[in-house]
Amino acid sequence: MIEIPRPTDPLPTAPAKLRILETANRLFYDDGIRNVGVDRLIGASQVTKATFYKHYGSKDRLITEYIAYRHRMVAEWLSDVAATANDDPLVVLRALQSAITSAIATPGFRGCPFINAAAEFAEPAHPVRRAVETHREWYVGVLEQLLRLLGHPLSGEAADDLMLARDGAMTGGYAGDPIASTTALNRAFDRVVAEARSPVPA
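^ thats the sequence. predicted structure below, dont judge the formating
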């Protein structure tokens, strides 16, 4: 049985707090986290400075909330896909593959938001880096589960391979040729699926 639980932490219930978070989600991704100051966030969110600090206290806290929000979007979507996949891990895996390639082809694509965030914070112990690491561990865990259910003989190693292929495709799709990047990603997925269908004899 495929198990991809939905996030349990609730979204902000205060409209202004949620509006700030959604604004940060857009601006941080489009322009870079360090390039977006508090004054710009306040203006774009149409809130007062007092309201901003009441809900988030600092830009650093908002940044970690932004990473959590991005994780939530991925986890909720994937959980919904799994719920309608009739326990077929290949359906979920192919949906994930399609979502990555579609994202790369979307106008305004700027690469992986998690990799982008990690690149802006060099200190490994920084809360942003820890939040990104948590998301990536979850992502690899999902891939490993799907590949294990699919019957891949080396599901952990194959999950690492797909994660690296995904990272490369998203980075190359932004900085280089999106078509070449998604084609290479599709080859990686096809290879891993073929390995699962024809496992190496013990």
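The radius of gyration is 19 Å.
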